[in-house]
Amino acid sequence: MLSLLTEAPHLICLAEHHLKYYKIDATPISNYKLAAKYCRKKLKNGGVCIYIQEGLKFTNISLQKHCKEQVIEITAVQLKLNKKNVIIFCVYRAPSGDFYYFLNKLDYILNSLHTYKTEFIICGDININYLGTNNKKKQLNYLLGTYNLISTVYFPTRQPTIQSPW
């Protein structure tokens, strides 16, 4: 088997896994444990989950009550590393999801978990265009900055659609 990685990742975060609860529970990844999951109950697609390498100790942080289909789908796990708490989030927001509700709920979640010994890592798909300057990008960056976070993806993650001139 050919691999781009010399070692397996400690975590795998999946946004838009498209599975229902009964299917994700029956979808193992070899050498990983399903550590956190959110699946849509009404609409199709969406969903987020985190798999962690077997043997790593973690705590699942229940965020189910904060999830709203298409608007904010979020899971989290906490790892203890060298006297620091590291919380890894997997987040999805559909392009049509209410951005301001998303931003307020994300702020609430981060604020409720923040301590001086806690570090955050956010993975996923928030569907904000980072290629140009826009209000949503500015507001998200401002929120991330209040928790010492920065966006690390500054390139297109999909092919642009070509619009007909007609």
Give an overview in words.
The protein has a single domain, classed as Endonuclease/exonuclease/phosphatase (Deoxyribonuclease I, Chain A, 4-Layer Sandwich). α2 (99-113) links the parallel β6 (84-92) and β7. The chain is 19% helix and 28% strand. The longest helix has 15 residues, at 99-113. It has 166 residues and is α+β, with helices and mostly antiparallel strands. It has helices spanning 21-24, 99-113, 135-146; strands spanning 11-15, 32-38, 48-53, 59-61, 73-81, 84-92, 118-125. It has a four-stranded mixed beta sheet, with no helix packed on it. It has a three-stranded antiparallel beta sheet with strand order 1-3-2, with no helix packed on it.
Structure, briefly:
With 166 residues, the chain is α+β, with helices and mostly antiparallel strands.
